Amino acid sequence: MTISELLQYCMKKPGAEQSVHSDWKATQIKVADVLFAMVKEVEGRPATSLKTSPELAELLRQQHSDVRPSKHLNKAHWSTVYLDGTLPDSQIYYLVDASWEQALTLIPEETRKSILGE
User: Fold this and answer.
1) Phi/psi of residue 82, nearest 5 degrees
2) Angstrom distance (rounded) from CA 108 to CA 88
3) Which of 10, 14, 42, 73 is most buried, with most CB under 10 Å away?
4) CA-CA distance, 90 to 60, in Å (whole number)?
5) Contact 98/104 with Cβ under 8 angstroms?
6) 94-114 exposure pattern, b = at least 16 Cβ within 10 A, e = fewer
7) Is 77 in contact with 52 (CB distance < 8 Å)?
8) What is the dihedral of CA 116, 8, 1, 89, to 10 degrees?
9) What does the pLDDT look like over 9-57, one tens digit per residue?
10) What residues does 17 pair with on adjacent strands?
11) Which InterPro entries match (predicted)?
């Protein structure tokens, strides 16, 4: 998977907005100002940081050498996933979906309903 493919997938999520974090030289994807993905090159490899439950983050890190704690975000919840590694694209898409859904739970109900067209 490429950074471009991942960004295209993220931007299809309802309410997704893209910005650049200049200090980290990363593209941030947010829904209603809540971060759900950060995309950049890490050690010369395409990567994304995604939020999961601490339990899933630990399990993924144990099973895949291409999933590591994120350097600049809460390491219990945020994992850096290398896009060119052993994790199948379908699992990366699943993790993006789960991270977006978690972000939705953190925004006000009225805003969430507006984003989801309810």
Assistant:
1) -75, 130
2) 33
3) 10
4) 14
5) no
6) ebbebbbebbbeebeeeebee
7) yes
8) 20
9) 999 999 999 999 888 789 999 999 999 999 999 989 999 999 999 999 9
10) 30
11) YjbR, YjbR-like_sf, YjbR/MT2646/Rv2570-like
Mean pLDDT, the chain, rounded, equals 94
Please provide the DSSP assignment of 33-53 as one string: TEEEEEEEEETTEEEEEEE--
First to last CA, the chain: 33
Question: Most distant CA pair in the chain: distance in Å?
Answer: 42
pLDDT, tens digit (0-9, with 9 covering 90-100), for 91-111: 999 999 999 999 999 999 999
Beta-carbon contacts of 95 under 8 Å, excluding residues fewer than 6 positions away, are 50, 52, 81
Q: What does pTM read for this prediction?
A: 0.92
